[in-house]
Amino acid sequence: MISVILKTRNGATTIGQTLQSLAHNAPPSRGWELVVVDNGSTDNSVEIVRSWQDRLPIKLVTEPREGRAHAMNAGIAAASGDLIVFTDDDVAFVLSWLASWESTTDRYPDLALFGGAIEPRFKSAPPTWMQGDVVAMAICFGATCPGRPEGPIIGHIWSDVFGGNIAIRRSVVDAGLMLDPIKIPAHLPAEETDLIYRAAKAGFCSGFVPQARVFHLVPPAHVRLIYIVRRYFRFGRAEARSFGEMEAPTRCTRVFGMRRYAIREIIVGMAALAWHWRPMSETARFAQLRHLLMLAGRTREEFALRAYIRVSTK
Q1: 170 plus 293 within the same structural domain
Q2: pLDDT confidence of residue 311
Q3: Fewer C-beta within 10 Å: the chain N or C terminus?
Q4: Given a cut of 60, is residue 137 above it in pLDDT?
Q5: Is the pLDDT assigned to residue 24 strictly greater than 90?
Q6: Burial 193-230 (b: 16+ CB within 10 A, else e)
Q7: Helix H segments across 182-252?
Q8: Which residues of 240-266 are buried (b: 16+ CB within 10 A; e: fewer)?
Q9: Pick from 200, 222, 244: which residue ends a domain?
Q10: What is the pTM of this model?
């Protein structure tokens, strides 16, 4: 059986379209269930979900603790399937989405974690400088690389495995691997990226399933510069928490708790950006700005984590 876990929090504007898209999917041969986790909605999201219970195999779960990690863990606890698929309340699915997950995961029994293709659908076009920037599209909208082939992911095992379209086998959960709401708190992104990273360290392998495609319905507010800037900074903070800084906080030279080379790179990068702003292309300017914002976010979080560790160990 496939268990689809869908977290919603005040998603009334899009969740009806998401559920309608799922209702049009061809069911997998082994059966499936839809575990909808309400994460403290104050709009009519829950009423919309209930209106679909006669057309979809919905199991409604309530998780009052805010955050994607808490919600998805509650969904996992309620799920019955041997393949668990994570998705969101602001996506639409290709008609073969469920069948593609079933057939492709059956072809790769040695893989335990999978990412599916994610394609943004915009109501308002993103900035022109962003449209050709694969990294920016991935960080801000969860877009996967166009043309990535089916099969095992070699190298960066978390690349193109994003929260709106992930599948994990029950064996990963049975090994004690869940989303970590302490390590990646509610206000930061990349909770599933952290799970994939920890699962890889535990010996589980990842794969990509391009046929299991979803379309991320991006609202106009998410293509504004202020959202993009904040997203870069928050993603940098999440990186600091996910990729080992809490486990090895003293492995490089630091100034006031921050990595010395990172401080130098931020200062030099800002000076270079200001000096070369006019001759640089718009795409190059904002790619450099993205790098600096993520580095600043990571440096800020490392400083905060070291301060927390010092206080908590006294």
Answers
A1: no
A2: 40
A3: C
A4: yes
A5: yes
A6: bbbbbbbbeeebbbbbbbebbbbbbbeeebbeeeebee
A7: 191-201, 225-242
A8: bbbeebbeebeeeebeeebbeebbebb
A9: 222
A10: 0.86
